[in-house]
Recover the amino acids of this structure.
């Protein structure tokens, strides 16, 4: 007779050999091992011997090969074709717009296609990788990124600033992975998360970084409110205490950040609307508003309406002001079409992230969505003449930032591929105590019966006659 443990192990090995995804394979092995143990324990309570109980439990599962093949079809990762198609459509729209800008003297397309090629290759590679690799050493990976940002600050001004702007795009998703590793760690996890957030804001000195890390701060508050840092065995550390302590720490840490960048940020935000700055720092935003105000639904704006040539009015019309130049040169409809495509992709990213089952994939994907949203808000505000900081255009941009955005989209797609995998193990729910209503009817005693029972009043004469001698 074969050993019971060998039969159980052989069943699990044959079952898991049919499943091609590592994360699903490990989760299903634990799940079916628990099913076998529970089934065997139920048979033992009915009087079956332990060895025979495990044999019956294994036999009741059926053929492990067929069962594993069915589970593999269910838990196989699926590509999010909507996000992938939207990404390539936006990149194609950006290529058309940059190609049109190149015809009007906006520069060559050689570097653009190089960024598209290596960014697209990275996207296809990242989206087939397992995103759970980020969960093995998330704090170490985030620390290496911070070290790379600190080393980039020592480079010459132009090269160092360009490299920092590209590397800082990866801060929110890696920060989300680091927060994921601090689950159930109480105040220690909150302190470490706040410290990592502050270091990312200080080292990634760019407007896109501040916008995306600001959205990450809001997500961090939401996760704290959901009880992410609350230990299972702690009754004193509640969600509200975690949320209040995190809010206080972020306020204390955010004050130095505002002290460092607040003045320059305020000047950039107020200059487009300051009449005294319209001939100085606010001149580009005023020119953009003039172009948008004279733009037609279709076709170029006549030069006599603008009072000059369009390309001379927009200083950075081939990059950060690409939509404003498109509206002035080809009409509002092409610009609105590109802007609408970006909005649809942003909404799709947020919805896909919130639908994910695994906590790690959901948090990392939300970090990627925060980066794209921050870039898009800055890009849109600059092309409407509301600010002077245009960002890098996201998927409509060019250069190294375009390649980095494609890599981020590959990370988001990798997280979305695991949306059908098993959920992460959750703590058992606390069942409420049953509410039992007790209805106790007090006994009924005749008058004087209690006193007779206590011996205070002698019993009646009839009971004396019947008393035994």
């Amino acid at each position: 007779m074969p050993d019971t443990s060998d039969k159980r192990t052989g069943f699990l090995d044959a079952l898991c050999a049919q499943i091609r995804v590592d994360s699903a394979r490990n989760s299903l092995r634990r799940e079916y091992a628990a099913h076998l143990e529970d089934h065997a324990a139920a048979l033992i309570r009915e009087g079956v011997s332990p060895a025979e109980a495990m044999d019956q439990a294994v036999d009741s599962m059926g053929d492990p090969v067929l069962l594993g093949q069915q589970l593999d079809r269910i838990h196989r990762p699926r590509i999010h074709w909507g996000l992938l198609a939207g990404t390539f459509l936006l990149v194609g729209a950006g290529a058309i717009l940059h190609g049109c800008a190149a015809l009007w003297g906006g520069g060559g397309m050689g570097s653009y296609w190089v960024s598209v090629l290596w960014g697209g290759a990275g996207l296809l590679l990242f989206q087939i990788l397992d995103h759970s690799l980020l969960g093995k050493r998330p704090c170490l990976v985030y620390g290496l990124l911070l070290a790379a940002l600190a080393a980039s600050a020592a480079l010459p001004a132009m090269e160092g600033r360009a490299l920092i702007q590209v590397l800082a795009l990866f801060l929110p998703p890696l920060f989300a992975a680091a927060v994921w590793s601090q689950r159930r760690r109480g105040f220690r996890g909150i302190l470490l998360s706040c410290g990592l957030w502050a270091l990312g804001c200080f080292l990634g000195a760019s407007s896109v970084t501040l916008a995306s890390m600001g959205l990450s701060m809001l997500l961090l508050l939401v996760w704290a409110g959901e009880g992410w840092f609350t230990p299972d065995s702690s009754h004193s550390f509640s969600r509200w205490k975690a949320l209040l302590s995190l809010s206080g720490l972020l306020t204390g840490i955010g004050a130095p950040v505002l002290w460092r960048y607040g003045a320059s940020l305020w000047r950039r935000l107020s200059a487009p609307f300051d009449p005294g700055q319209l001939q100085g720092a606010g001149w580009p935003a005023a020119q953009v508003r003039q172009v948008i105000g004279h733009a037609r639904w279709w076709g170029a704006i006549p030069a006599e309406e603008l009072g000059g040539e369009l390309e001379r009015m927009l200083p950075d019309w081939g990059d950060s002001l690409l939509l404003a130049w498109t509206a002035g040169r080809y009409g509002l409809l092409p610009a609105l079409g590109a802007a609408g495509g970006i909005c649809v992709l942003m909404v799709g990213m947020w919805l896909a992230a919130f639908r994910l089952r695994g906590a790690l994939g959901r948090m990392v994907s939300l970090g990627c969505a925060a980066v794209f949203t921050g870039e898009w808000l800055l890009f849109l505000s600059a092309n409407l003449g509301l600010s002077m900081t245009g960002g890098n255009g996201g998927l409509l941009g060019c250069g190294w930032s375009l390649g980095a955005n494609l890599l981020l989209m590959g990370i988001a797609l990798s997280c979305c591929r695991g949306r059908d995998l098993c959920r992460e193990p959750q703590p058992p729910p606390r069942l409420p105590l049953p509410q039992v209503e007790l209805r106790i009817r007090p006994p009924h005693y005749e008058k004087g019966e209690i006193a007779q029972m206590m011996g205070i009043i002698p019993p009646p004469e009839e009971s004396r006659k019947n008393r035994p001698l």
